[in-house]
Amino acid sequence: MWFVGHFVILAQLMSPLAAGTGSGSGADPLTVVKVASATTQPTTQSAGALEITLKTESGATTQPAETKADDKIDIVRVIEGKQILTADQLLKFGPWIGALTELAWEVISFIPKLIVAIFIFFIFWCIYRAVRKVVRGAMKKAGVDESIRDMLMGIIKWTILGFGLIVCCNQMGIPIVAMLTGVSIIGLAVGFAAQETLANFIAGVVIFWDRPFKLGDWVEVDSTFGQVLRITFRSTRLLNLDGETIVFPNTHMLANKVANHSTHPINRVNIAIGIAYKSSIDEARSTLLGLINNDSRICADPPPQVVVNECGDSSVNLLFRFWIKDEAIERSIRYEYLEKAKNAFDQNGIEIPFPHMQLLVDKNAA
After folding, report:
1. What are 350-360's pLDDT values in tens digits?
2. Residue 141 lies in a domain
C-alpha cells in the first residue's frame, strides 16, 4: 500500500519562549516552517528523512552552535607544519593564552619523566665507573699495553652510556629506535664515502692486536726516526729528534717497513768512514777503538769493532761498530763519534781522501 503524506506541524520548542507569546508581539519568536517526509515504498524503507527549518524573528535561518576549533592554537602542530596560523589568530590574545597554558601543562607533565631519565642515566654512569675501575685494574695487573687499555675503556664507556641513553630517551617518550634506524642508514652511506678512514680503523685494530710497537718505542719509518707518542684507530704519532710530531696513517704503518729499535735490549751503531789507500788500516783501527774507552754508554759485550766495509775508487771504507743500551741516543752518539774520528785521524796523520781535480798546463805553444 502506497502512502504519501505531507505534514505541517506548528510547535513551540521552548516553554519559556512559548509563555512570551502573550506579550502582544503578535508573532511567535520561533516557528517551524516545514517538515516533509520522503515518499517511501513498502519494499525499500519505512521512514523518511526529516527536514526541519527554523526561522528567527528577523527571518534569518539559524544553525546549531558549533565550537570554534579553528581559533585554537596548537603549538606542536604549528611546529610540525600541520596548522597554519591566520592573521586573526595572530592578533587575538585569547588563543595564545590557551596555547601557552597547554604548553605549560605539557612542560609540567614532562618534568617527572625528565627526573626519572636523569636518575636512570646516573645509575648507568655509576655502573660504568665500577666496571671501568675493575677492568682497568685487571688489565694493569696483566701488563696490558696502555694504548690497548685506552681503546677498551673507550669501547666500554660508549657501550654502557649509549645503552643508558637509549633507555632514558624511551623513558621520556623520544622515538630513539626510529632515530637509530635513520642514523644507521646514514652511517652506511657515509661508510662507502669514507673507505680510507675505515681502512685506517681496521689497520689500527690490527696494530693493537699484533703489537709491532707500543707507546714509548723508538721506531724508524721511511727514514723517520722517532718515539711513538700515541696510537689511535686512525693514525700513529711519532716524535722525531727535531721535536716534530709526525702523523702516519695506520695503513701506512702496516704497508711499509717499520724498524723497532726498542724491542731488543741493545742496539748497534754503525759509523762509516774512509781512509786513503796509503794509510794503515791497523793504525786507523787502534785510533778508533781508543776513542770509546771509559764511555759508560757503550757496551763492553759485544765488544766494539772496526772492519773494512769496502774498497772504493779512492778510499778504503771502514765501518766503526759498537753497541749501546739506550736506543734514544742512537743518532746523537753517531754524530758525536763521527766528529771524534775525524779529529783523531787528523792528529795521527791518517788521511781521509776526498775528490779533487788535478789541472796540468802545457807550456808549449800550440
Report:
1. 998 887 777 77
2. yes
What is the tens place of the pLDDT at every residue in 207-252? 888 888 888 899 999 889 999 998 888 899 999 989 999 999 999 9
In a domain, 343, yes or no: yes
Same domain, 122 and 168: yes
Q: Which three cell numbers stand for residue 256?
A: 711499509
Q: Is residue 315 part of a domain?
A: yes
d(CA 206, CA 103): 54
CATH number of the domain where residue 213 is located: 2.30.30.60
Last residue of a domain, one of 213, 242, 260: 260
134 shares a domain with 82: yes
Please name the residues in contact with 258: beta carbons below 8 A apart, sequence gap of 6 or more.
212, 213, 219, 220, 221
Residue 362 within any structural domain of the chain: no
Tell me how far CA of residue 97 lies from CA of 73, 79, 88, 92, 308, in angstroms. Answer: 9, 17, 14, 9, 99
Q: Determine whether 264 is exposed, middle or buried from the number of CB atoms within 10 Å of its CB (0-12, 13-18, 19+).
A: exposed
Q: Is the pTM of this model over 0.85?
A: no
Range of the domain at 29: 1-65
Q: How many domains does the chain have?
A: 4
